[in-house]
Amino acid sequence: MQLFYAPTSPYVRKVMACAHLCGIVDRIALLDSAAHPIRRDARIAAHNPLAKVPTLILADGTALYDSRVICEYIADLAGNDHLFPPAGAQRWRALAWQALGDGLLDAALLARYETTARPPEWQWSDWRAAQLKKVEASLDELEPQAPSLAVQRPTIGEITLGCALGYLDFRFAELDWRAAHPQTARWFDAIVQLPAMQATTPRDA
């Protein structure tokens, strides 16, 4: 398998963390890419019309995207029985947490793009503030649930939330999200010690 990859993408981190947890990271070759909200990377676009990472290319040439689909494919391929619970309340809880983490990331990325991808004369401070309000609301929603989040046998929900919080540390340190969310901070400080999370910690080139 081949993965269009960016070392700072939280969605790529989510996929790679799942690959580590499933023990198949050595079966994935990483492909150089330069995904950008404005400038399309033709290498990715040849397989994914959205030209986004992560995009996974299977041996038969089939392309899978986005991170939600790729992570479930990896879990199924590896026979993992806990990343995506098969049925019942545990499954819906895991998927809801995944949606919360992905939504937090979507808002954080839009806030970042407002100042990194948009020319200064076109930037809209109210737009960025509205996206960061979504981030804050997501953290507030997560705080009372944090004590019930798993560490040692995480589902896709915990992995996504861990990657989302890691992205806030990486790109939005000024938010100091831990100050108002101590239970979430305690959980994050535990799950980030997993080898799968340590191996995928984002770093600027």
UniProtKB/TrEMBL annotation:
<dbReference type="InterPro" id="IPR004045">
    <property type="entry name" value="Glutathione_S-Trfase_N"/>
</dbReference>
<feature type="domain" description="GST N-terminal">
    <location>
        <begin position="1"/>
        <end position="82"/>
    </location>
</feature>
<feature type="domain" description="GST C-terminal">
    <location>
        <begin position="87"/>
        <end position="205"/>
    </location>
</feature>
<dbReference type="Pfam" id="PF13409">
    <property type="entry name" value="GST_N_2"/>
</dbReference>
<dbReference type="Pfam" id="PF13410">
    <property type="entry name" value="GST_C_2"/>
</dbReference>
<dbReference type="GO" id="GO:0016740">
    <property type="term" value="F:transferase activity"/>
</dbReference>
<dbReference type="GO" id="GO:0006414">
    <property type="term" value="P:translational elongation"/>
</dbReference>
<dbReference type="InterPro" id="IPR036249">
    <property type="entry name" value="Thioredoxin-like_sf"/>
</dbReference>
<dbReference type="GO" id="GO:0005737">
    <property type="term" value="C:cytoplasm"/>
</dbReference>
<keyword id="KW-0808">Transferase</keyword>
<dbReference type="InterPro" id="IPR036282">
    <property type="entry name" value="Glutathione-S-Trfase_C_sf"/>
</dbReference>
<dbReference type="InterPro" id="IPR010987">
    <property type="entry name" value="Glutathione-S-Trfase_C-like"/>
</dbReference>
<dbReference type="InterPro" id="IPR050802">
    <property type="entry name" value="EF-GSTs"/>
</dbReference>
<protein>
    <submittedName>
        <fullName>Glutathione S-transferase</fullName>
    </submittedName>
</protein>
